[in-house]
């Protein structure tokens, strides 16, 4: 009707202008603020990238140090928030608890919830970045029945998170530093991805001038779904299922190709990339490096390699331009580090937080931004009369 066009999943509708992330899906290009993802992956750190994504420019060394120290100094959780986390069911999915805890930050720090006040927005930005890893580690420790580990101000962001999660890492210094490097890299690769489902959610919620905490909490719930961030968990479950079937990759692919089965090859396909997801290339190399260090070959990684090879040689996938995405190999790395599958999407959330914040802040300052309010094409009944009571 009139100007309204039907566009399911917003595949052709740009809802905003943005300066944060550039993607060319046909060419497999991804840049944050103009910097190619490969260069950031090779030389930067997650905190530097977080600063870049949020503020638009790389930090000066002094700014990076100050940024990092502020996050370290604010990593601890208020006792009431810890008590709240301790009261949650221990067997709940960590993503459910993460979204709840982030929403509740708006109650503990109510003096930083006004989107109209730039200082409050800066404070909410800092508190979210500082506390998300601590909340995530606390949820994990509770889930395994171990006492939470307090943040250590002398450690940097990623190392501190790993210590709060595992207490000790592998115990082997070289492997520990490889794990820190690997997680740092994975977080860099997840830091932003323009208008994906969770970021679009953060923008939609923020467009009503809801707080940053409430908007990010909504984004975490969007990320949880298996078609989005939940795919990293689903990939591992799929690999385990195939192993359970005696490793028969062909039988599994036949099931995927049979549309009746409603089975998808998890970790494959993307709305925007019709070519290799440049993040998956970086992650595959990292997976090989880490799993090389293990004594026994990792069966699930081998299965993933086999699955990828067969799929890329199969016209079902090549005709539809389905390639491995960011989630295909990340899970095997998280698993090698000792994370249980239900923590994988939490790691994605820690990585994506700078992107969510950057988009929310960009929208806040965008003079063209309006409340998000899509239209619809009504296809229900025409007017009819209520029959009245008998
Ligand atoms: N396995 C089998 N077939 C697939 C897959 C897949 N993974 N992905 C797409 N297809 C088929 C789909 O059935 C359709 O076929 P046809 O034209 O015969 O009906 C065609 O390819 C186009 O698919 P679509 O559903 O229209 O694509 P979309 O852009 O709406 O969905 C997607 C994108 C990522 C949700 C989808 O590819 C998918 O479900 N992939 C598996 C889940 C996954 O790995 N998600 C992570 C995405 S990347 C990071 C993130 O967002 O977290």
TrEMBL record:
Superkingdom, taxonomy of origin: Bacteria
InterPro entries the UniProt entry points to: Citrate_synth-like_lrg_a-sub, Citrate_synth-like_sm_a-sub, Citrate_synthase, Citrate_synthase_AS, Citrate_synthase_bac-typ, Citrate_synthase_sf, Citrate_synthase_typ-I
Molecular function in Gene Ontology: citrate synthase activity
Record bears the keyword Transferase: yes
Pfam families with a match to the protein in the record: Citrate_synt
Assigned keywords, A-Z: Acyltransferase, Transferase, Tricarboxylic acid cycle
Catalysis performed (reactions): oxaloacetate + acetyl-CoA + H2O = citrate + CoA + H(+)
Pathway terms, separated by semicolons: Carbohydrate metabolism; tricarboxylic acid cycle; isocitrate from oxaloacetate: step 1/2
Family of this protein: Belongs to the citrate synthase family.
NCBIfam families tied to this protein: cit_synth_I, PRK05614.1
Protein name (database record): Citrate synthase
Organism for this UniProt entry: Nocardiopsis mangrovi
